[in-house]
Amino acid sequence: MKEEVKEKEVEKKKKLSKYEKQKLKRKKIEELEAKKGIHKFWTTHVVETWYIFIIELMVKWLLGSLSADWTVLRIFISSCILSLIISLLTTNMNNKVRKVFLIIFNFFIVFYAWLQMGFMDFLGAFMSIGNAEQGTKITDYIFDFLRSYNLKTHLLYIPFILTIVYLIFERNITRDGYNKKIEYKNIIKDIAIIIYIILLCDLFYMTLEISFMQNKYQTISNKQLFKYPSNPSMAIKNFGTTVYFILDVKATAFGSSEAVYASNNYKEKEESLTRDIDDTAWENLIKIEDDTSLNTLNNYFISRPISEKNEYTGIFEGKNVIFIMLESVSQAVFSEQYKDYYPTLYKLYTEGITGVNNYSPKNNCATGESEMTSQISLYSIETTCTVNTYRKNVYPEALMSMLGKNGYYTSAYHDYTDQYYYRSVFENNFGSSIYYGVKDLGMSYSNLYKEWPSDLTFMETALPYFIDKEKFASYMITVSGHSPYMYSSTLGDKYLSLFDDLDVDKTTKRYLSKIKVVDTALEYLLEELENKGILDDTVLVLFGDHYPYALSDKEFQSIADYDISENQEVDRTPFIIYNSETPHEEITKYTTPLDYTPTILNLFGIDYDPRMYLGNDVFSDYTDFAVFPDNSWQSSKGFYSASKGEFIPKEGESITDEEIIEINNEITDLRNMSALAIKKDYFNYLFKYFEEYEELQKEKEEESTVESSTQSTQKEE
Fold it and tell me: Which pLDDT value is given to residue 26?
């Protein structure tokens, strides 16, 4: 009997009309909402606060900078503020529209954080709107980019999934508060919300101002970073990715205040015992210049120390020079175990003047920024792809400009197009009288990202353009070592069998195969110089633009005999100055491409002003350290981690807090003045004034000579 009743009830439900079903559904909702619940405004506020905060904590965890410090409180307060704004904006929306909006908003937060972590894993730097152009080019190497991700990074999406679950069951949680809207009629409630907003903003501001909430080593104040996030790594550490995005948009839309860059740490001008430098024109410019920013630069650069000449000054005077930037060639391939695979690279490294503590910091435009820094000795600007953004700047003090003024035939060469960097523009502005790209050289090339031209063909094609010149300075940018390595390619497979005996995977062997192409190209170069009888009269300067970042950490570690996971050791690259008549020597100072130009100018006996270069002649007397994009630095004493705000000493070494802060202050000034100099095209302005001043002095001398002659004639009469 009971079974018959149940069957009848089932049949009855099946026969319910559509109207009756909707009526039944509404009744259940009314019953649910009749129970006392929570206003959805407050649940949204709480959920969004914790969602944003947890995402930011996970980012700090992934970056290795998660600790119980004041940055956590600052990020929690900003999460509260952002979630409050979103809650106020969405509560009165139609519920379906509101949910869609919240899903899109939350997805953007996690996707942006995930994307930034991808850029850090792959490029070693965070991206900003200013260098988005380079960021969009990851589509060319999207699979390399995706495989570079640390698997833990994908855990960022878990909080996002949980917020979707919350939105699905929100009606059950909020009950009678689900359909409630904010009614701005209750004055007491309205005032309470206003007070709450003011309190949160005040608390956030306090975290920027109160001294004990600041890192004692951090030389860019959090207040300055909030005004303008000049250092993305530092800004993300202190504010999180979400607030950084807002600050980045603000800075892009409204520009940056140049007051951020102002420095008053001018030292008293020092005289040099060995360099005869006349500052009359510069001092006169300071007196007449009305532009505050330009005079900030004038005062800063004129007060920089002047390194003295030394026993290395002029040892290569009059010789030819060929600079070669080696694409993706890391320090790893110069170890003893690879000497038989790369005999030419090994020869140059072990017979030349070799920098054994050299680093190529991986900026957001790694190759272009290393190329730029090596020639103008200025730091790149972290919020943009400097070499492209400011490609029209002119640098009369740049390496090739200085060599050109001293009688060298200067030219630059690259075996690829301007697809990534505007070399046809900026190489001329660095001082090369002519630039030859792959099309100018008449080389064949493929548009396929995995197929790069051969550097051997490059040498064979480019050398005839300058090798017979009386005195030449050539800047060559190779490309064969470029990623990807995960795909089969002409150069990646060319010498694959040569490395069959190595216990490394196929992707790594393809990288090694491409470096073999570089080795054969350099072998050809040495042979041609010897055949021409100018090997002894030519100096080769070689350096790597960056390590092969398209290899995974595991793949790269399999060929490196040093720990790449520690203290930016991954950025170790070669720096070699080779001349067949010069004995081998090791440079133990910590160097970067910033130091190449002043070093070479000194070795070639070029009359230059050391104050105009933010790097150093490595043979001079100075405190050496290698600076990385986030303002971390490496020295013989140890490693300062800007992300952690701590110094990691080397065994047996020590350093005081005062010394750390002094170096941090110096680095901040160097970077700030460098950025301002680039933005103002400062050296173009400075040298133009020097020329105008010199012309004016000549005119005065001529007028004085004429006047003296006239007076003499009048006396005779």
Answer: 64
